[in-house]
Design brief:
5-stranded antiparallel sheet; 26% strand; 501 residues; 8-stranded parallel β-barrel; alpha/beta
Length: 501
C-alpha cells in the first residue's frame, strides 16, 4: 500500500461556486483602467466581478439590445478576457427610476404597463438617497411589478438574456432582479406605502409575480446558478419577508441561491446586531438547501457572523463609483471619505479604530474563508501488483470552508511516467456530491476502485490527482494542498506498478 499525505495549503483558493468578487455598480471601468500594481491584484484576492445595470441601458427600444454598452459588455468582457468570471444583474428598477435612465425603459409604459410616480421630495436628504440631482424635479417612476404587460415585456427580455449568456462559461451567476427596487424584493422605499396599496398591492399578487419571474429566469438559464436578493416586500408593519416565503421556497426548490444585501446592522431584535431576525430566519430555513451570498463591506465582527451562516459568496456593497471600494482601501484618507463602509454611523468607534492593514485583512479573510475548501488529507492506494488490474483508493477528505460544497464534481486520477500520461480515469465520489456530505468541517471517508489496463508496463509512475467540475465547463477545482500543476492536477508522489510478468 502507498500512503500519501499532501501538505496542507493555507492560502486563497479560486473556485467556481464560491468566493468573493469585486462589485462594479456605478461608472464601471474596464480591466485595463485599474492600476496593475493595485494591492488586490498583487495579492490575487479573487477571480470574479459582480456587475449590474438598469434594464433601460440594455434595451433602450423594444427588441433592440445595446449589449456593448460601456456599463455592460463594454466593461465586463475586458475582465473575462483576463480570466475573470462574472455575476450578472439587469435591474427592472434601479435607484432613481425610468425618468433618470435608471430603471424600466419608458417604452414598456408606452405599451400600456402601469406605473407609480413617487414625488422626488420623498427622497431628498434621506439616509438612502442623498445624491439626488438638485436641479431635477421628475418623480421616481416604479413599475407595478405584477402588471401583466410589465411581466410580458420582462419575460421577453429574460429570454434574450438567456440566449446570450446561458452558454457562456464565464458567467458565474445571474440575478433574478425584476421584482422590487434594485431587484431586492421591496417594491419601493419606506415612504408612503399606502400609495402601493391604493394601486392594488396584495401579498398574493406580489408572490405570483415573483414566482412567475423566477420561472422565467429558470427557463432562460437552465444551466446557470441564479440568485434572489431578499427583502421585505413592502414597508407595512403587518408584512415581513416571511410573507414572501411561498415565492422564496419556490426559488430554493428551483436551485436559486439567496442573497442578502444589508448585512451589517439589525433593525429587529432576536438575531444579533448585524442582521434582522426575519431575514435571518429565512436564511436559516434554507441554509442546508442552497447557497447564501452576502453584500456589504462592514466590521470584521459582522462578516465573521456572515461566515458562520454558511456563506458561499461575498462582495462589498454601497454606492461608490467603479472600483473605489477596493482601491480606496489602501488610501490614507479618513474612513468616511472612502464611502465604502456600510452602516458607518452605527459603529463609528469600531470603524475608527481600524488601521489600513485591518481594512486589507477584511478582504483577505473573506477571500480565504468564503465558500467551501476541500482538502484530501490522506490517500491510501493499494493494488496494481502481481498482475492485478484493480487499484483501490481510500480517501480522507476535509471541507475546511465555511459553506457546504454544492457543486457536482468528479475525482480524476492519472499515472504519469517521463511526462507521458499512461492512464487517466474519472468517476464521481463513492459518497456522492451531496452538500449534506460535503458540509463545513466534515470529515469524509471515501473508497473508489479503478480499472487499470493490463498493458501498463511495470515500473515507477507518478500518481496525480484532480477534481473536475463538469457543470463548470470542466474547470479543475483548486484544493487546499500544495503541488498544483498548470493543468490543475496535483502531484501526489510515486507509485510502483507490477504487471506480474
Amino acid at each position: 500500500m502507498h500512503i500519501f499525505s499532501p501538505e496542507q495549503y493555507n492560502g486563497i483558493l479560486h473556485n467556481r461556486g464560491c468566493g468573493i468578487s469585486y462589485l462594479q455598480r456605478n461608472h464601471k471601468i474596464p480591466f485595463s483602467a485599474v492600476p496593475s500594481d493595485s494591492w488586490f491584484f498583487r495579492e490575487n484576492l479573487c477571480d470574479k466581478i459582480a456587475i449590474d445595470v438598469p434594464w433601460c441601458l440594455i434595451e433602450p427600444c423594444e427588441g433592440e439590445f445595446n449589449w456593448d454598452h460601456p456599463e455592460w459588455e463594454g466593461c465586463f468582457n475586458s475582465w473575462i478576457d483576463n480570466g475573470y468570471k462574472v455575476h450578472l444583474k439587469v435591474r427592472g428598477m434601479d435607484t432613481l427610476g425610468t425618468l433618470y435612465d435608471q430603471g424600466t425603459p419608458q417604452w414598456v409604459f408606452d405599451a400600456g404597463a402601469k406605473y407609480i410616480d413617487e414625488p422626488i421630495e420623498f427622497y431628498r436628504n434621506t439616509w438612502l438617497l442623498n445624491n439626488i440631482p438638485s436641479d431635477r424635479e421628475q418623480p421616481i417612476r416604479y413599475p407595478l411589478y405584477w402588471d401583466e404587460i410589465y411581466l410580458e415585456k420582462t419575460d421577453a427580455l429574460i429570454a434574450e438574456l438567456g440566449k446570450r449568456y446561458n452558454g457562456n462559461p464565464a458567467v458565474e451567476s445571474v440575478s433574478i432582479s425584476h421584482v422590487g427596487r434594485w431587484g431586492e424584493m421591496h417594491v419601493a422605499d419606506h415612504y408612503k406605502p399606502e400609495i402601493w396599496v391604493e394601486q392594488g398591492f396584495t401579498i398574493e399578487k406580489y408572490n405570483q409575480a415573483l414566482i412567475r419571474t423566477i420561472d422565467s429566469y429558470r427557463r432562460a438559464f437552465p444551466d446557470k446558478q441564479l440568485s434572489l436578493s431578499l427583502g421585505r416586500p413592502i414597508y407595512i408593519d403587518s408584512i415581513t419577508v416571511k410573507d414572501a416565503w411561498p415565492a422564496i421556497d419556490h426559488a430554493v426548490a428551483n436551485n436559486v441561491m439567496l442573497k442578502f444585501d444589508g448585512l451589517g446592522h439589525s433593525y429587529e431584535f432576536g438575531s444579533g446586531p448585524y442582521i434582522c431576525k426575519n431575514i435571518h430566519d429565512t436564511l436559516m430555513r434554507h441554509r442546508d438547501k442552497t447557497k447564501i451570498m452576502f453584500e456589504n463591506l462592514i466590521l470584521p465582527e459582522a462578516l465573521d457572523f456572515g461566515l458562520r451562516q454558511g456563506l458561499s459568496y461575498w462582495h462589498a456593497g454601497g454606492e461608490p463609483p467603479a472600483m473605489t471600494a477596493i482601491t480606496n482601501v489602501e488610501r490614507d484618507i479618513p474612513l468616511p471619505e472612502k464611502r465604502i463602509y456600510s452602516f458607518y454611523k452605527f459603529f463609528k468607534n469600531q470603524y475608527d479604530r481600524m488601521t489600513r492593514e485591518d481594512e486589507k485583512n477584511i478582504w483577505r479573510n473573506m477571500a480565504l474563508k468564503s465558500g467551501y475548501r476541500l482538502i484530501p488529507s490522506q490517500i491510501r492506494v493499494s493494488g496494481l501488483s502481481d498482475g492485478s488490474q484493480e487499484m483501490l483508493t481510500e480517501f480522507t477528505w476535509w471541507n475546511l470552508g465555511c459553506a457546504p460544497c454544492f457543486e457536482q464534481f468528479e475525482i480524476v486520477l492519472r499515472l504519469v511516467r517521463d511526462d507521458k500520461i499512461l492512464w487517466e480515469a474519472q468517476q464521481s465520489p463513492g459518497v456522492g456530491c451531496s452538500n449534506q456530505v460535503w458540509k463545513p468541517l466534515a470529515n469524509i471517508n471515501d473508497q473508489l476502485t479503478w480499472q487499470v489496463p493490463q498493458s501498463l508496463v511495470s515500473g515507477t509512475c507518478e500518481l496525480q490527482l484532480g477534481v473536475r467540475m463538469p457543470f463548470f465547463n470542466n474547470a479543475m477545482m483548486q484544493l487546499g494542498i500544495y503541488g498544483r500543476r498548470n493543468d490543475g492536477f496535483y502531484s501526489l508522489g510515486e507509485i510502483d506498478i507490477s504487471n506480474g510478468a
